[in-house]
Write a structure and sequence with these properties.
2 domains; 4 helices; Alpha-Beta Plaits; alpha+beta; VC0802-like; globular; 138 residues
Length: 138
């Protein structure tokens, strides 16, 4: 099973990020990983949360435009070169990465890299064959 990522489309206005995080907080949602990319007019907030269905409902009910997407959450050692090895593996096996971001796990010796890949089945298979762990929650 894959991790569900929520993407929220935000206007570049003061307070919009505060509003979306308050909406999730009020719904009792715990954010596990977060990334934001912006342009002059809007931003895309990407989050991994503990209860994605509840978060989606809260966000939509509060007027946000959001969608849910499957992503790969791959656990890697928190050491120099670990990400480079995964990148090289994906290059060699032609896994096309659309974007990625990362989060540290609580035990501090592991990192979780969130990958949005073009073909999620292919990406998952390659990661499993290499012996890396694909998480279904964290």
């Amino acid at each position: 099973m894959d991790i569900k990522q929520i993407s929220v489309f935000l206007e570049n206005n003061a307070g919009r990020l505060a509003k979306v995080t308050r909406t999730m907080a009020d719904a009792g949602i715990n954010i596990r990983a977060i990334s934001i990319a912006d342009t002059a007019d809007f931003g895309i907030l990407r989050v991994i949360v503990d209860r994605p269905e509840v978060a989606m409902k809260a966000l939509v009910d509060d007027g946000f435009t959001a969608r849910m997407t499957d992503v790969l959450a791959v656990e890697i050692p928190d050491v120099p070169g670990a990400l480079a090895q995964v990148m090289e593996l994906f290059q060699q096996t032609e896994v096309n990465i659309e974007y990625l971001y990362a989060s540290l796990k609580g035990n501090r010796d592991k990192a979780v890299v969130i990958f949005k890949v073009q073909d999620i089945e292919h990406g998952r298979r390659i990661v499993h064959e290499k012996g890396l762990e694909v998480l279904d929650k964290f």
